From TrEMBL:
GO biological process: proteolysis
UniProt key word Zinc: no
Keyword Iron-sulfur: no
One Pfam family this sequence matches: Trypsin_2
Keyword terms, alphabetized: Signal
Signal peptide (from-to): 1-24
GO MF entries: serine-type endopeptidase activity
PANTHER family registered for this protein in UniProt: SERINE PROTEASE (PTHR15462)
Taxon lineage: Bacteria, Bacillati, Actinomycetota, Actinomycetes, Pseudonocardiales
Matching InterPro entries: Glutamyl_endopeptidase (IPR050966), Peptidase_S1_PA (IPR009003), Peptidase_S1_PA_chymotrypsin (IPR043504), TRYPSIN_HIS (IPR018114)
Name listed for the protein in its UniProt record: Trypsin
């Protein structure tokens, strides 16, 4: 089970180049459903600073009570402050509520937050997650804010494209922060279809803490920014084997959550 330890504790007591957004129609919930073709909506380019060697600074660690417990990434929005992660990283699921006091450290490594800590707000998950912990809807969005910041988060670190309705088989770069590591794990491999609403990828060394880590296709060699088609989560909260990870399939439910988030960001 990839579920972060901090959520299990809470449950026991009671969660550069040009950027653009890609959306497609949600497949019908049948065993034979296949992803439709995606369309593209372009946005203005963003600038990024020099990047650390390990991964894109648009990927970072989520912190609660002084410890990192999940992973999140910046996705493009006009406001420049939208985060993407797993639903179980920001909401307890059935019978639970949204987590409070969460912060985001983009580009975090070796105990250093090079862009500071950003307050996580406006958390949003699908009703199917909050009411029944539906693993097919283990995707969440939020916004990130920093008091006194002169620039938006996205203008500082860049952002990935969000895509829905894409193919089940794609070459991706997977990034996540293991609970017991101060640097992100990074892996490249090809995804496969777990079932109609789940993706799967074999990548060694992605244990608890990597939940919410983005699955990025076609990353730019310099900025390491690309198109995000999944996050570690879904089946078994992302998987009970650290060498195999899962993601809920990004369909129109994810598209709707993104649009809700950007409408109020």
């Amino acid at each position: 089970m990839r579920r972060p330890a901090v959520l299990l504790t809470l449950a026991a007591v009671l969660l550069l180049g040009a950027a653009f957004v890609v959306f497609a129609t949600r497949p019908a919930r049948t065993a034979n459903a296949t992803p439709p073709d995606a369309g593209v909506v372009e946005a203005a380019p963003v600038s990024t600073p020099d990047l650390p060697a390990v991964s894109s600074p648009a990927v970072g660690a989520l912190f609660l009570d002084g410890a990192h417990y999940c992973t999140a990434s910046v996705v493009h929005s006009d406001q420049g402050d939208v985060l993407l992660t797993a639903a179980h990283c920001i909401h307890d699921g059935e019978g639970g509520d949204y987590l409070t006091g969460v912060t985001f450290a983009p580009g975090y490594h070796d105990g250093v937050a090079p862009f500071g800590y950003w307050t996580v707000a406006d958390e949003l998950v699908a009703p199917g997650w909050s009411s029944s912990s539906d693993p097919d809807l283990d995707v969440g969005f939020a916004t990130a804010h920093q008091t006194g910041a002169a620039r938006s988060l996205e203008s500082l670190v860049g952002a990935n494209t969000l895509a829905t309705g894409t193919a089940f088989e794609q070459a991706i770069t997977l990034t996540g922060y293991p609970d017991d590591s101060e640097v992100p794990a990074v892996c490249r491999n090809t995804t496969s279809k777990q079932d109609t609403y789940q993706l799967k990828v074999d990548c060694a060394g992605f244990p608890t803490g990597t939940s919410g880590g983005p699955w990025v296709t076609s990353p730019d060699p310099k900025t390491r920014l690309g198109t995000v088609v999944g996050v570690i989560g879904g089946f078994e909260y992302g998987g009970d084997d650290p060498d195999t990870s899962y993601s809920s399939y990004f369909d129109t439910d994810v598209q709707a959550l993104y649009r809700q988030t950007t409408a109020r960001a």
